[in-house]
Design a protein that fits this description.
alpha+beta; Uridine Diphospho-n-acetylenolpyruvylglucosamine Reductase, domain 2; Uridine Diphospho-n-acetylenolpyruvylglucosamine Reductase, domain 3; Enolase-like, domain 1; 3 domains; four-stranded antiparallel sheet
């Protein structure tokens, strides 16, 4: 590690003021940022903690929309979203281990956009809206590639608005050592259609499987995707699985998610 200043504001305005300084960076749960600092892949001169800001915490349901504040931990989402959006709560309850779930936050996960993170799949499959201190960004426009989002410098994720689907499920094929998904699929069915988002598989990060969406929109059953195939081009390949293996998992996990969503 190296020397840096650390501040913990109690209001959003104070945090934004601190972040306006040169080489300042926001930190929430720190589950990704701290290891990054240890490896010198990032070296901000000041860390601005968002965990002391009350307005950035909490879960609420209004009509058919579930809103989660940006600094809400995975553990809280798992508990407080269970009634309104069970699939999202289940996803949150399976992230990492108890320590990670107690510290990690939804805003931090979405701001980092790790190619194997779970929340990006939920946000994209749900057609969620990422709310910042300056604007609202549709999930389809927010995720822009490996560790890349539409966030501007100093912009903070203050919340996420999830339209609640008719049916949904998250299927996660876990890489045991890291607890990240080797590949995972979130399927959400709405009256307007079906959305399928995949994480852990592509070199470009989270993406929508449009062919699967079209098939499931016509027939929301596991059989609908049985005859489809996923192009392995652009899929990640490593010691844990080839690109072809990950492509195959996309179809398998989608079918499992639909079966589970149908009960």
């Amino acid at each position: 590690m190296y020397a840096f200043d650390f501040v913990k504001p109690s209001t959003l305005d104070e945090a934004l003021s601190a972040l306006a300084e040169d080489e300042a960076q926001a930190i929430s749960g720190g589950q990704t940022l701290i290891p990054t600092l240890k490896q010198r892949l990032a070296m901000p001169s000041k860390l601005v903690s968002l965990t002391g800001i009350a307005e950035l915490k909490g879960v609420k349901t209004e009509g058919n929309t579930l809103t989660i504040a940006g600094a809400t931990t995975h553990a809280v989402v798992a508990k407080e979203a269970a009634e309104a959006y069970p699939a999202l709560a289940s996803l949150a309850g399976r992230i990492g281990d108890p320590s990670v779930r107690a510290l990690g936050t939804i805003g931090g996960s979405l701001a980092n956009n790790d190619p194997s993170a779970c929340y990006p799949a939920a946000a994209l499959a749900s057609g969620a809206t990422i709310v910042t201190n300056t604007r609202e960004i549709p999930a389809d426009d927010y995720f822009q590639g490996l560790f890349t989002t539409a966030l501007d410098e100093g912009e903070i994720v203050t919340g996420v608005k999830f339209p609640i689907p008719e049916k949904a499920h998250y299927q996660k094929f876990i890489q045991p050592a890291s607890r990240f998904p080797l590949t995972a699929v979130f399927v959400a069915k709405y009256s307007s259609g079906v959305r399928v988002a995949v994480t852990g598989a592509s070199e470009d990060g989270v993406f929508r499987w449009s062919e699967g969406e079209e098939a499931l929109g016509a027939n929301f059953s596991p059989d609908a995707v049985s005859g489809l195939s996923v192009d392995p081009d652009g899929m990640m390949a490593d010691m844990h699985g080839t690109a072809e293996y990950r492509a195959h998992l996309v179809k398998v996990l989608t079918a499992r998610a639909v079966a589970a969503a149908n009960g």
